[in-house]
Amino acid sequence: MSSIKDFVSSEFSPIKGKTSWASPSNIALVKYWGKYGDQFPQNPSLSFTLSKCVTTTSVAFKPREVKSDHFSFSFLFEGKQEAAFHPKIETFFKRIAHYCPYLIQHHLDISSSNSFPHSSGIASSASSMSALALAIVSMEQALNPELSPIQFAQKASFLARLGSGSAARSIAGPMMSWGETPAIEGSSQSFGTQLAQRIHPIFETFQDTILIIDKGQKKVSSTLGHQLMENHPYASTRFAQAHEHLKSLVTILSTGEMEDFIALVELEALTLHALMMASNPYFVLMQPNTLAVLNKVWAFRQDTKVPLSFTLDAGANVHLLYPKENKAVVLEFIQTELAGYCQGGQYIEDQVGAGAKKL
Ligand code: DP6
Prior knowledge:
This protein folds into 2 domains: about 5-200, Ribosomal Protein S5, domain 2; about 200-350, GHMP kinase, C-terminal domain (Alpha-Beta Plaits), CATH 3.30.70. About 35% of the residues lie in helices and about 25% in strands. It has 8 helices and 14 strands.
């Protein structure tokens, strides 16, 4: 599948069934920040697929008795009716309806839960949208068993992207890219691609310990954040830089050159925040404790030579990245020196994973 029209499924006779998926979150090393049109990225991005921060989503479907132009579904989040999520799902269904004509022919009972605390300030759109997209493509596969594994993965990523851009990168592990780049064969603006290049084995052992500096709701929604890039004075320079970074990162990932990895990943994180500080209106999303942690990380790295680095999302929390062989010494450092900067002393231990799983 390569052209968008290839993602439009045929119409099938409705059937009854049920499918469940667990899909992980991911953490971008080269950031997606800026989009256009129907959720296309302004630059390619690349992320580690995580393993413990997952959303599990089940979809039970059955033929609809009454024909209507409206979607018919119920939604339970962690076992409770959550009306607040309905408009988001409805919008998602409207966006993907053209590609999934079977949606309107069925009633769906959706139930979803996260492995991580809802109030941890961890963005869950990547795991939740990819889990829902995977369940919907499983439904399509029940209607059309001829869907090949490649078509399945590409369509799931394609649909996930229409729900939330970064969700396109949560399907497979240990790393995925999204957005067209000459550095990655088969890369696409429409769906994510599992990194097929040689990856130095050290990166498959990477840990991501997420320091919860602030549990609160995001101050800048990703929708607003991406909009800020529309008239941003540094936009074109940034998009060109991201292309260069992605190319360099692909080489670094194969050689395992740790100093170059750290320099590139931290520069990407700080660039994301610098872009927000230079937007109109401007936002500072780091908090004093974020900066205190970054200074501690730099000092620790200098003193111990342990390859500990950080990356940031569009928020105050810090993702600490390091190889598994350094886990004991890094966890000791986190417990003694960094946990005090976390809200309620909270941090989440995650690691690079193999991608979404059908349950
Ligand atoms: C900073 O994927 O949340 O995490 O497409 O509007 O849903 P929407 O945005 P979203 O943006 C993620 C931004 C980021 C960087 C990244 O994950 O690449």
